[in-house]
Amino acid sequence: MKNIFSGEFKIGILGGGQLGKMLLQKAHDFNLHIAVLDPSANAPCRNLCNRFVQGDFKDFNTVYNFGKDLDLITIEFEDVNVEALEALEREGKQVYPQPAVLRIIQNKGSQKSFYQQHKIPTSPFVLIKNRDDIAQADIDFPVFQKLLTSGYDGYGVQFLENKNTLQKAFDAPSVLEQSVDLEKELSVIVARNAKGEVAHFPPVEMEFNPEANMVAYLFSPAGISPETEKKAVSIARTIVEKMKMVGLLAVEMFLSKKGELLVNEVAPRPHNSGHQSIEGNSTSQYEQHLRAILNLPIGNTAIIQPSVMVNLLGEKGYRGKAIYEGVEEVLKIDGAHIHLYGKYETRPFRKMGHVSIVAPSLEEAKMKAKKVKSALKVIA
Amino acid sequence: MKNIFSGEFKIGILGGGQLGKMLLQKAHDFNLHIAVLDPSANAPCRNLCNRFVQGDFKDFNTVYNFGKDLDLITIEFEDVNVEALEALEREGKQVYPQPAVLRIIQNKGSQKSFYQQHKIPTSPFVLIKNRDDIAQADIDFPVFQKLLTSGYDGYGVQFLENKNTLQKAFDAPSVLEQSVDLEKELSVIVARNAKGEVAHFPPVEMEFNPEANMVAYLFSPAGISPETEKKAVSIARTIVEKMKMVGLLAVEMFLSKKGELLVNEVAPRPHNSGHQSIEGNSTSQYEQHLRAILNLPIGNTAIIQPSVMVNLLGEKGYRGKAIYEGVEEVLKIDGAHIHLYGKYETRPFRKMGHVSIVAPSLEEAKMKAKKVKSALKVIA
Fold first, then answer.
1. How many CB pairs under 8 A join A and B?
2. Domain coordinates of chain A in residue numbers?
3. What is the pLDDT of residues B241-254, one digit of tens each?
4. Helix A60-67 and helix A82-90: axis angle, to 10°?
5. Does B4-95 carry CATH code 3.40.50.20?
6. Binary contact (B323, A48; C-beta < 8 A)
7. Measured between beta carbons, which residues in chain A are less than 8 angstroms from residue B3?
């Protein structure tokens, strides 16, 4: 057995973005040996890892060759070459999350079918092959049409009010998902290690930027009843257990105006809805992911202080080498913790960083978050 | 003016050990461009910086050449080539802490004289040239003899009970310092930026390993009266202001059984007595050092939760490639945060890592710290 903490045990991450970067910042506390594969020479992870490999994580040979000298392979982005991960798994490498889990999650159709099969509440849906199928679809409008693969952060998603708005529709295999009369959106992050230990983070509440369809604010804890919290946690734990997944799973849910909880989608890795855990919770989601994939004891997830996370998105109208305005203003705010991802170029709504604000009360954190939001800009 | 947060502004650190490593872990949140100079190819900083240069930080040319393309040079170890830093400062580089401050601090004689000159309480002392001076020295025994330069972590320090124990004495320029009847040892870390903003961390209490003469435990906050706290803080702030220093200054003090506070020594950089601030305080000492040297607003230093820091020293009797025992036990303890420094080789009492334990009460943190201490070992 190779010693994990002496750098003999070699770990690889597919993807070198901000999630990988924050994972690496923590990984250094455990003296882990980590290699990173990313297509961009300027990836945020480039200066924090033991070895950086520039290459395409969607290409079989690139992923296979990257993984074959490693002991464990993980991801920070799920749209990777699963065939290569399956080959590596067959050869005895540890691959977490498991390729079988990625197969379910990568395809929005199989993800929805998984929920249906395991009686996990999700909004009604139908699978369609192309645009022509929409008119005959047995579903109440309005719907969201979601491409089966490659959709994230609002890409590959289209809102269809009724059957007269089909000209906007994608002409490709997709899921039609009944729109939910939304009270709020929640996320519960769960972790599971190979021993089967499971722990969840207290649910958080997400507020979206309607134009970018990306998380603008995150509130921890979520403003929900104890019953809703209990139900949300139970759903998240059920999914990770039914999938027998090893690693971190972020479960995004809709809370409808009627009080129903419906799973929207899941991500098998550290997630935007867990950034606040770095300063706000006893164990961060990044440390928890490492604990889970390395089969170490799962950490305590208790909230230390309420927190608000503000996503720092590239300003509209700017493209090019990133310039950060208002950092000093943010540094004057007690309890505000700034995280710049180090992406070389900005573009409208690109995730360039985040700020977590911790405070004795959520109200105070929210007030400070407003100040952060108005002070901090990424331009070019 | 170069943009600090866009990686245009280039920073260098002399020294690539654990203090530099923890500084870099935080620096990545600010997207800073940092180069590191260290004599060891295996230095803990090697995989976290933008550029790693292997070289001797005590050599004029090495330091000068390292610094000449940078905008700002700082240190994580004060025993560096000051002449080179002075040359760089003359050429317009920012050097923080300033070379003039390093001159005072590097020499234990000028450090003591500085305290005397500015009426900062410190134990009585005399300066001597060699062993023969000791018999005539106008000082009450017992004393600590400290070599003027190159002493740290108990190296270069000798305890002399009386004038009959002179055979143990160093035959070199040194300070004879009257021994203090010790109640406890305290540390106050202060930060000052170029605008002159000053902030202090709440005092911590250090418990030493008598054999290694190194910090074994750190308690935050210190168990002292509000009056003693006020006095300790005032002393630390006075020193940083009198030195007009920019950066972080750790002020180690003796609290005598009579209740006197006496400055022992200072370190112009992040310090072992501030490790707990990563998890225990609103701003960590590492972030504070960055804020200070970059002339950014000085951060809030409030204690979030009481904490205990346990130094992880190499076990006696082991030398060679480090192996960490008991990590899993520590990971089961709520609130315990492990930091392995990633040093390749262990040796007796070498600082190999630390664990900070935060808890709602210091008593609880102390109980958990005992468990950590007995579980975690570095062997070879």
1. 91
2. 4-95, 124-178, 182-379
3. 999 999 999 999 99
4. 40
5. yes
6. no
7. 323-324
